[in-house]
Amino acid sequence: MARLAGRLPQFLRRADPAVVTAFACIVVLLFLGSLYSRSFLSPEYLLQQLKVASFLGVIATGMMLVILLGQIDLSVPWTVTAGAMMGCAAAAYGPLGVVLAIPFGVLCGMLAGLVNGVGVAYLRIPSMIVTLATNAVAQGLMVVYTGGFSPQDSATAAMRYIATGSTLPGLPNAVVIWALIGAAMVFVLTRTAFGRSVYGIGNRERAAYLSGVDTRRVVLIAFVASGGLAAFGGVLLAGYASKAAQSMGDAYLLPSIAAVVLGGTSILGGRGSYLGTVAGVILITLLQSILSVMQIQEAGRQIIYGVVIVAMLLLYGRAPASR
User: Fold this and answer.
1) Residue 3 pLDDT greater than 60, yes or no
2) The whole model's pTM is what?
3) Which residues, other chains included, contact 203 with Cβ-Cβ below 8 Å and sequence gap of 6+?
4) Tag placement on the chain: N or C end, fewer CB within 10 Å?
5) DSSP letter for each residue of 122-163
6) Distance CA 65, CA 274 (A)
7) Span 56-60, mean pLDDT?
8) C-beta separation of 278 from 61 below 8 A
9) pLDDT given for residue 312 in this prediction
């Protein structure tokens, strides 16, 4: 057995079991999906699923950054919605508004992240509390803005193009954007002092502080990035649907957390890779697709997401406890 193990490729021996498990589950889901529909494995269908996954992927990128710190961002639902609504709303203010629609939507999300970051990093409020409060405030502001009715503003041509267009032949722009954001996140986490600080704080914040890390600044930046990415995800969704909608971000809270945890990122922080998050996003998207084919209602899907998160917590969440 020792000789056999020694012959295994080095990358397999170093692979995170959680990431390997996630990709194995993807293969299983593809097989199960092909049993329900022959077109499930067609290149066109898989590319469509990858485009749908890119929206969740952008949102989950920010969620992963926060979870690596050992925190949580529960303001995602209405940060996504606010980014979409405000991006569409800006388009109603002439040519300049059309140009600034996407940046304005992202800026609104960053503002929500700033509130979260200040509350967690400087006021020492538990992230679960402050982000839930921010989500409630954002919901209230959007309801006041729309009067409780469906928003009337439409997405700009640029928003629709980045969400549904294709600059590279055969490759949706949304997938390219997710790939670029993912590459940037991998670089930040593996090649910068900020990334090392994120892992250090997630492992033990006190030790990171004593080693000279400005822990409050790192936490603040992480929450701002999470808010900005959530809002950008909302902008993409608005472009995909041609307009924003009330509560359009509600369906992305549990999946974004599940995708990160399924990919092996510890909910207690300090451990995880972006490749795992990519696997988790694809896994969740395929699971959604199969549940849709099986005509399982939304309530049933939410139950499944909750069960998945609890199961992954039992598998991975206890690992850092011995530190």
Assistant:
1) no
2) 0.90
3) 269, 270, 271, 320, 323
4) N
5) IS---HHHHHHHHHHHHHHHHHHHHTTSPP-PBPPHHHHHHH
6) 9
7) 97
8) no
9) 66
More confident residue, 229 or 168: 229
DSSP state letter for 171: B
Rounded Cα distance between 240 and 78, Å, is 18
- CB within 8 Å of 248: residues ≥ 6 apart: 80, 81, 84, 234, 237, 238, 241
Contact between residue 227 and residue 72 where contact means Cβ atoms under 8 Å apart: no
- For residue 212, how far is the Cα from the chain centroid? 30
- In this predicted structure, the answer to whether residue 14 has a pLDDT above a threshold of 90 is no
**Tens of pLDDT, residues 193-227:** 999 999 999 999 999 999 999 999 999 999 999 99
Is-contact 231 62, C-beta < 8 A?
A: no
d(CA 114, CA 314): 32
Instruction: Catalogue the long-range contacts made by 217-222 (C-beta closer than 8 Å, 24 or more residues apart).
Output: 217/121, 218/69, 218/194, 219/69, 219/71, 219/117, 219/120, 219/121, 220/114, 220/117, 220/118, 220/121, 220/122, 221/117, 221/194, 222/65, 222/66, 222/68, 222/69, 222/71, 222/117, 222/198
The residue with tokens 């690992």 is 319
Which contiguous run of DSSP H or E holds residue 246? Answer: none
Lowest-pLDDT choice from 92-101, 182-191, 194-203: 92-101
Q: In the chain, pLDDT over 90 holds for what percent of residues?
A: 58
Cβ-contact 219, 69 below 8 angstroms: yes
Averaged pLDDT, 31-45: 82
Mean pLDDT over all residues of the chain?
A: 87
Bridge partners, residue 154, by sequence:
243
Q: Which of 259, 232, 281 is nearest to 81 (CA)?
A: 232
Which residues have C-beta within 8 Å of that of residue 181, sequence separation ≥ 6? Answer: 57, 58, 61, 229
